[in-house]
TrEMBL record:
<feature type="domain" description="6-phosphogluconate dehydrogenase C-terminal">
    <location>
        <begin position="162"/>
        <end position="299"/>
    </location>
</feature>
<dbReference type="InterPro" id="IPR006115">
    <property type="entry name" value="6PGDH_NADP-bd"/>
</dbReference>
<dbReference type="GO" id="GO:0006098">
    <property type="term" value="P:pentose-phosphate shunt"/>
</dbReference>
<comment type="similarity">
    <text>Belongs to the 6-phosphogluconate dehydrogenase family.</text>
</comment>
<dbReference type="InterPro" id="IPR013328">
    <property type="entry name" value="6PGD_dom2"/>
</dbReference>
<dbReference type="Pfam" id="PF00393">
    <property type="entry name" value="6PGD"/>
</dbReference>
<dbReference type="InterPro" id="IPR006114">
    <property type="entry name" value="6PGDH_C"/>
</dbReference>
<protein>
    <submittedName>
        <fullName>6-phosphogluconate dehydrogenase Gnd</fullName>
    </submittedName>
</protein>
<dbReference type="InterPro" id="IPR004849">
    <property type="entry name" value="6DGDH_YqeC"/>
</dbReference>
<dbReference type="GO" id="GO:0050661">
    <property type="term" value="F:NADP binding"/>
</dbReference>
<dbReference type="GO" id="GO:0019521">
    <property type="term" value="P:D-gluconate metabolic process"/>
</dbReference>
<dbReference type="InterPro" id="IPR006183">
    <property type="entry name" value="Pgluconate_DH"/>
</dbReference>
<dbReference type="GO" id="GO:0004616">
    <property type="term" value="F:phosphogluconate dehydrogenase (decarboxylating) activity"/>
</dbReference>
<dbReference type="InterPro" id="IPR036291">
    <property type="entry name" value="NAD(P)-bd_dom_sf"/>
</dbReference>
<keyword id="KW-0311">Gluconate utilization</keyword>
<dbReference type="Pfam" id="PF03446">
    <property type="entry name" value="NAD_binding_2"/>
</dbReference>
<dbReference type="InterPro" id="IPR008927">
    <property type="entry name" value="6-PGluconate_DH-like_C_sf"/>
</dbReference>
Length: 301
Protein backbone atom coordinates (compact mmCIF):
# COMPACT_ATOMS: atom_id res chain seq x y z
CA UNK A 1 0.00 0.00 0.00
CA UNK A 2 1.20 3.54 -0.75
CA UNK A 3 0.61 6.81 1.09
CA UNK A 4 1.55 10.42 0.58
CA UNK A 5 2.47 12.19 3.83
CA UNK A 6 2.67 15.98 4.00
CA UNK A 7 4.51 17.43 6.99
CA UNK A 8 7.61 15.73 8.39
CA UNK A 9 7.97 17.53 11.71
CA UNK A 10 8.15 15.93 15.17
CA UNK A 11 5.08 13.78 14.59
CA UNK A 12 5.09 13.33 10.82
CA UNK A 13 8.73 12.25 10.61
CA UNK A 14 8.20 9.44 13.13
CA UNK A 15 4.90 8.46 11.54
CA UNK A 16 6.64 8.00 8.20
CA UNK A 17 9.16 5.69 9.85
CA UNK A 18 6.51 3.64 11.68
CA UNK A 19 4.45 3.23 8.51
CA UNK A 20 7.50 2.07 6.58
CA UNK A 21 8.27 -0.46 9.32
CA UNK A 22 4.79 -1.87 8.64
CA UNK A 23 5.41 -2.15 4.89
CA UNK A 24 3.49 0.97 3.88
CA UNK A 25 5.28 2.69 1.00
CA UNK A 26 5.36 6.33 2.14
CA UNK A 27 6.25 9.29 -0.05
CA UNK A 28 6.79 12.29 2.21
CA UNK A 29 6.73 15.97 1.38
CA UNK A 30 8.07 18.78 3.55
CA UNK A 31 9.41 22.22 2.61
CA UNK A 32 12.71 21.29 4.29
CA UNK A 33 14.92 19.63 1.66
CA UNK A 34 16.84 17.59 4.24
CA UNK A 35 13.77 15.48 5.14
CA UNK A 36 11.50 15.53 2.08
CA UNK A 37 11.22 12.72 -0.47
CA UNK A 38 9.87 14.92 -3.26
CA UNK A 39 10.30 18.62 -4.07
CA UNK A 40 6.63 19.67 -4.31
CA UNK A 41 2.99 18.67 -3.86
CA UNK A 42 2.77 18.17 -7.61
CA UNK A 43 5.68 15.75 -7.45
CA UNK A 44 4.03 13.97 -4.53
CA UNK A 45 0.85 13.43 -6.57
CA UNK A 46 2.88 12.21 -9.55
CA UNK A 47 4.78 9.72 -7.37
CA UNK A 48 1.60 8.02 -6.14
CA UNK A 49 -0.52 5.73 -8.31
CA UNK A 50 -4.22 6.60 -8.44
CA UNK A 51 -6.42 6.32 -6.52
CA UNK A 52 -4.21 8.07 -3.97
CA UNK A 53 -4.36 8.49 -0.21
CA UNK A 54 -2.62 11.59 1.17
CA UNK A 55 -2.19 12.27 4.89
CA UNK A 56 -1.78 15.92 5.95
CA UNK A 57 0.25 16.42 9.15
CA UNK A 58 0.85 20.17 9.38
CA UNK A 59 -0.03 22.85 11.99
CA UNK A 60 -3.74 23.55 12.40
CA UNK A 61 -5.40 26.64 10.99
CA UNK A 62 -4.34 28.55 7.87
CA UNK A 63 -1.48 26.18 6.98
CA UNK A 64 -3.80 23.15 6.95
CA UNK A 65 -6.51 25.00 5.02
CA UNK A 66 -4.01 26.17 2.41
CA UNK A 67 -2.57 22.67 2.08
CA UNK A 68 -6.06 21.21 1.54
CA UNK A 69 -6.78 23.85 -1.11
CA UNK A 70 -3.49 23.08 -2.87
CA UNK A 71 -4.23 19.36 -2.81
CA UNK A 72 -7.62 19.97 -4.38
CA UNK A 73 -5.72 21.33 -7.36
CA UNK A 74 -3.26 18.44 -7.81
CA UNK A 75 -5.25 15.35 -6.81
CA UNK A 76 -7.87 13.51 -8.88
CA UNK A 77 -11.42 12.20 -8.39
CA UNK A 78 -11.34 9.05 -6.29
CA UNK A 79 -8.41 10.18 -4.16
CA UNK A 80 -8.65 10.49 -0.38
CA UNK A 81 -7.21 13.13 1.98
CA UNK A 82 -6.72 12.50 5.71
CA UNK A 83 -6.15 15.49 7.99
CA UNK A 84 -4.20 14.10 10.95
CA UNK A 85 -3.24 17.42 12.51
CA UNK A 86 -4.88 19.10 15.49
CA UNK A 87 -7.40 20.99 13.38
CA UNK A 88 -10.51 22.42 14.97
CA UNK A 89 -13.47 20.18 14.18
CA UNK A 90 -15.36 23.11 12.66
CA UNK A 91 -12.75 23.25 9.87
CA UNK A 92 -13.48 19.70 8.76
CA UNK A 93 -16.84 20.36 7.12
CA UNK A 94 -15.52 23.12 4.83
CA UNK A 95 -12.43 21.03 3.99
CA UNK A 96 -14.61 18.04 3.11
CA UNK A 97 -16.92 20.17 0.95
CA UNK A 98 -13.98 21.70 -0.92
CA UNK A 99 -12.56 18.28 -1.74
CA UNK A 100 -15.94 16.69 -2.47
CA UNK A 101 -16.50 19.25 -5.22
CA UNK A 102 -13.45 17.67 -6.91
CA UNK A 103 -14.59 14.11 -6.22
CA UNK A 104 -11.99 13.66 -3.46
CA UNK A 105 -12.82 12.01 -0.13
CA UNK A 106 -11.93 13.38 3.30
CA UNK A 107 -11.28 11.83 6.72
CA UNK A 108 -10.28 13.70 9.88
CA UNK A 109 -8.00 11.87 12.30
CA UNK A 110 -7.17 12.88 15.84
CA UNK A 111 -3.74 11.47 16.67
CA UNK A 112 -2.26 11.04 20.15
CA UNK A 113 1.11 9.63 21.11
CA UNK A 114 3.57 12.46 20.69
CA UNK A 115 7.20 11.71 19.95
CA UNK A 116 6.81 8.27 21.57
CA UNK A 117 4.36 7.04 18.96
CA UNK A 118 7.12 5.69 16.71
CA UNK A 119 7.70 2.75 19.04
CA UNK A 120 4.50 2.70 21.13
CA UNK A 121 1.97 3.41 18.41
CA UNK A 122 -0.56 6.23 18.17
CA UNK A 123 -4.07 6.49 19.57
CA UNK A 124 -6.40 7.31 16.67
CA UNK A 125 -9.86 8.87 16.59
CA UNK A 126 -11.26 9.31 13.08
CA UNK A 127 -14.29 10.88 11.43
CA UNK A 128 -15.64 10.22 7.95
CA UNK A 129 -17.94 7.97 5.95
CA UNK A 130 -17.67 4.20 6.32
CA UNK A 131 -16.16 3.61 2.88
CA UNK A 132 -13.37 6.16 3.27
CA UNK A 133 -12.46 4.95 6.76
CA UNK A 134 -12.47 1.31 5.63
CA UNK A 135 -10.21 2.17 2.72
CA UNK A 136 -7.63 3.71 5.07
CA UNK A 137 -7.77 0.95 7.72
CA UNK A 138 -4.39 -0.61 6.75
CA UNK A 139 -2.79 2.79 7.45
CA UNK A 140 -4.59 3.20 10.75
CA UNK A 141 -3.67 -0.35 11.75
CA UNK A 142 0.00 0.34 11.05
CA UNK A 143 -0.03 3.49 13.18
CA UNK A 144 -2.07 2.30 16.16
CA UNK A 145 -0.60 0.32 19.09
CA UNK A 146 -0.37 -3.46 18.88
CA UNK A 147 -3.30 -5.48 20.22
CA UNK A 148 -7.04 -5.10 19.84
CA UNK A 149 -7.94 -2.39 17.34
CA UNK A 150 -10.61 -0.98 19.65
CA UNK A 151 -7.98 -0.24 22.32
CA UNK A 152 -6.22 2.29 20.09
CA UNK A 153 -8.58 3.18 17.26
CA UNK A 154 -12.14 4.39 16.92
CA UNK A 155 -14.31 5.46 14.01
CA UNK A 156 -15.98 8.13 16.14
CA UNK A 157 -18.60 9.30 13.64
CA UNK A 158 -18.95 11.39 10.46
CA UNK A 159 -16.56 14.08 9.28
CA UNK A 160 -15.51 16.23 12.24
CA UNK A 161 -15.98 13.52 14.87
CA UNK A 162 -12.31 12.54 14.95
CA UNK A 163 -11.06 16.03 15.68
CA UNK A 164 -13.87 16.61 18.17
CA UNK A 165 -12.85 13.48 20.08
CA UNK A 166 -9.19 14.55 20.02
CA UNK A 167 -10.14 18.02 21.27
CA UNK A 168 -11.87 16.51 24.31
CA UNK A 169 -8.93 14.14 24.81
CA UNK A 170 -6.56 17.09 24.95
CA UNK A 171 -8.84 18.98 27.32
CA UNK A 172 -8.70 16.00 29.70
CA UNK A 173 -4.93 15.96 29.25
CA UNK A 174 -4.78 19.58 30.48
CA UNK A 175 -6.60 18.63 33.67
CA UNK A 176 -4.53 15.50 34.34
CA UNK A 177 -1.22 17.28 33.85
CA UNK A 178 -2.21 20.11 36.14
CA UNK A 179 -3.38 17.77 38.90
CA UNK A 180 0.01 16.03 38.85
CA UNK A 181 1.76 19.38 38.75
CA UNK A 182 -0.13 20.69 41.79
CA UNK A 183 0.70 17.51 43.68
CA UNK A 184 4.36 17.93 42.79
CA UNK A 185 4.38 21.52 44.04
CA UNK A 186 2.77 20.52 47.35
CA UNK A 187 5.34 17.78 47.89
CA UNK A 188 8.18 20.16 47.06
CA UNK A 189 6.85 22.73 49.54
CA UNK A 190 6.83 20.33 52.54
CA UNK A 191 10.07 19.93 54.51
CA UNK A 192 8.98 16.50 55.73
CA UNK A 193 9.37 15.21 52.16
CA UNK A 194 13.05 14.65 51.49
CA UNK A 195 12.72 12.71 48.22
CA UNK A 196 10.10 14.29 45.99
CA UNK A 197 11.12 12.34 42.91
CA UNK A 198 11.03 9.10 44.90
CA UNK A 199 7.51 9.77 46.14
CA UNK A 200 6.23 10.44 42.62
CA UNK A 201 8.03 7.37 41.31
CA UNK A 202 6.46 5.24 44.06
CA UNK A 203 3.06 6.15 42.64
CA UNK A 204 3.83 4.65 39.22
CA UNK A 205 3.03 1.02 40.10
CA UNK A 206 -0.06 -0.22 41.89
CA UNK A 207 -1.61 3.12 42.87
CA UNK A 208 -4.87 4.51 41.55
CA UNK A 209 -3.11 7.56 40.11
CA UNK A 210 -0.60 5.63 37.98
CA UNK A 211 -0.45 6.59 34.30
CA UNK A 212 1.93 7.22 31.43
CA UNK A 213 1.84 10.94 32.21
CA UNK A 214 2.98 10.15 35.75
CA UNK A 215 5.83 8.06 34.33
CA UNK A 216 6.86 11.04 32.23
CA UNK A 217 6.75 13.35 35.25
CA UNK A 218 9.18 11.00 37.02
CA UNK A 219 11.43 11.05 33.94
CA UNK A 220 11.35 14.84 33.85
CA UNK A 221 12.21 15.07 37.58
CA UNK A 222 15.09 12.65 37.19
CA UNK A 223 16.50 14.78 34.38
CA UNK A 224 16.04 18.09 36.23
CA UNK A 225 14.92 17.50 39.88
CA UNK A 226 14.01 21.11 40.66
CA UNK A 227 13.10 22.16 37.11
CA UNK A 228 15.86 24.76 37.33
CA UNK A 229 16.36 24.74 33.57
CA UNK A 230 12.70 25.20 32.62
CA UNK A 231 10.56 28.32 32.81
CA UNK A 232 6.99 27.96 34.04
CA UNK A 233 5.74 29.69 30.87
CA UNK A 234 3.37 27.13 29.33
CA UNK A 235 1.89 27.53 25.87
CA UNK A 236 -1.46 26.10 24.76
CA UNK A 237 -2.03 24.82 21.25
CA UNK A 238 -5.77 25.50 21.08
CA UNK A 239 -7.55 22.29 21.98
CA UNK A 240 -8.04 23.23 25.64
CA UNK A 241 -9.67 26.51 24.65
CA UNK A 242 -11.94 24.74 22.17
CA UNK A 243 -12.92 22.14 24.76
CA UNK A 244 -13.95 24.85 27.23
CA UNK A 245 -15.88 26.65 24.49
CA UNK A 246 -17.73 23.42 23.69
CA UNK A 247 -18.47 22.83 27.37
CA UNK A 248 -20.06 26.27 27.49
CA UNK A 249 -22.00 25.63 24.28
CA UNK A 250 -23.40 22.37 25.65
CA UNK A 251 -23.83 23.67 29.22
CA UNK A 252 -21.55 20.90 30.46
CA UNK A 253 -19.71 21.82 33.67
CA UNK A 254 -15.96 21.45 33.12
CA UNK A 255 -14.29 23.19 36.09
CA UNK A 256 -11.10 21.08 36.07
CA UNK A 257 -10.33 21.55 32.38
CA UNK A 258 -11.23 25.24 32.58
CA UNK A 259 -8.98 25.77 35.60
CA UNK A 260 -6.09 23.99 33.91
CA UNK A 261 -6.47 26.21 30.83
CA UNK A 262 -6.57 29.39 32.91
CA UNK A 263 -3.51 28.21 34.84
CA UNK A 264 -1.61 28.17 31.57
CA UNK A 265 -2.64 31.76 31.00
CA UNK A 266 -1.42 32.59 34.51
CA UNK A 267 1.93 30.94 33.75
CA UNK A 268 2.68 33.69 31.27
CA UNK A 269 2.42 36.31 34.00
CA UNK A 270 4.16 34.60 36.93
CA UNK A 271 6.48 31.63 37.33
CA UNK A 272 5.49 28.65 39.49
CA UNK A 273 6.80 25.13 40.24
CA UNK A 274 3.48 23.64 39.09
CA UNK A 275 3.67 25.29 35.68
CA UNK A 276 7.29 24.19 35.31
CA UNK A 277 6.04 20.63 35.81
CA UNK A 278 3.32 21.08 33.16
CA UNK A 279 5.86 22.56 30.74
CA UNK A 280 8.23 19.66 31.40
CA UNK A 281 5.45 17.12 30.80
CA UNK A 282 4.52 18.66 27.44
CA UNK A 283 8.16 18.43 26.42
CA UNK A 284 8.40 14.80 27.54
CA UNK A 285 5.37 13.36 25.75
CA UNK A 286 5.13 15.61 22.73
CA UNK A 287 8.54 17.14 22.21
CA UNK A 288 6.92 20.55 22.60
CA UNK A 289 9.40 23.37 22.96
CA UNK A 290 10.01 24.72 26.44
CA UNK A 291 11.03 28.22 27.32
CA UNK A 292 14.32 28.00 29.17
CA UNK A 293 14.80 29.75 32.49
CA UNK A 294 16.96 32.90 32.44
CA UNK A 295 20.68 32.13 32.55
CA UNK A 296 22.21 31.83 35.97
CA UNK A 297 25.79 32.77 36.65
CA UNK A 298 28.30 30.69 34.74
CA UNK A 299 25.81 28.56 32.81
CA UNK A 300 26.69 30.08 29.46
CA UNK A 301 23.39 28.72 28.09
Amino acid sequence: MQLGLIGLGKMGFNMRERLRRHDIDVVGYDPRPEVTDVPSLEALAEALPAPRIVWVMVPSGPITRQTIENLAGVLSPGDLVIDGGNSRFTDDGPNAELLDAKGIGYVDAGVSGGVWGLDNGYGLMVGGNDADVERALPIFDALRPEGDRADGFVHAGPVGAGHYAKMVHNGIEYGLMHAYAEGYELLAAENLITDVTGVVRAWTKGTVVRSWLLDLLVKALQEDPDFKDISGFTQDSGEGRWTVEEAIRHSVPAPVISAALFARFASRQTDSPAMKAVSALRNQFGGHAVQRAPNTEGTGA
